């Protein structure tokens, strides 16, 4: 399923969205699915002049994975 379909399903089941949003949005789902954190990876970052930059190597298995790594 893509972000649009997942958002539509979550909204139809009235599953609360994160934060202050009242509904799930396809962009939120797309961002979640493209984040390496969903497979448990952590990437430390540093903010310089309002922009984030990765620091060091990613740490695998930092978080419990919520989806598998399908690469």
Short overview:
27% of the residues lie in helices and 11% in strands. The protein is of the alpha+beta class and 71 residues long.
Question: What are its keywords?
Answer:
single chain; about 70 residues; alpha+beta; two-stranded antiparallel sheet; globular
Number of E strands: 2
Distance between the termini: 17 Å
Q: Into which percent range does the helicity of residues fall? A: 25-40%
| Beta-strand fraction estimate | 5-15%
Following the backbone from N to C, one meets helices and strands in this order, namely HHEE
Count of alpha/pi helices: 2
> Order of strands across the biggest sheet?
1-2
- Class by alpha and beta content: alpha+beta
Q: Residue ranges: pLDDT <50 for 5 or more in a row?
A: none
Total domains: 2
Shape: globular
Largest sheet geometry? 2 strands, antiparallel
* Computed Rg: 15 Å
Whole-number mean pLDDT: 92
Can you put this structure into words, describing what you see?
A hairpin with a 2-residue loop joins strand 1 (45-48) and strand 2 (51-54). This protein is of the alpha+beta class. Helices cover 27% and strands 11% of the residues. Strands 1-2 form a two-stranded antiparallel ribbon. The longest helix is centred in the N-terminal third of the chain and has 10 residues, at 3-12. It is built from two helices and two strands; from the N terminus they run H-H-E-E. The mean pLDDT is 92. It has helices at 3-12, 26-34, and strands at residues 45-48, 51-54. The protein folds into two domains: 1-34, no CATH class; 38-71, no CATH class. The protein starts with a helix and ends in a 17-residue tail after the last strand.
């Amino acid at each position: 399923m893509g972000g649009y379909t997942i958002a539509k399903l979550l909204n139809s089941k009235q599953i609360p969205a994160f934060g202050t949003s009242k509904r799930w949005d396809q962009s939120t789902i797309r961002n979640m699915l493209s984040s390496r954190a969903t497979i448990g990876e952590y990437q430390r970052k540093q903010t310089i002049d309002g922009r984030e930059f990765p620091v060091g190597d990613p740490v695998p298995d930092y978080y419990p994975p919520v989806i598998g790594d399908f690469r």
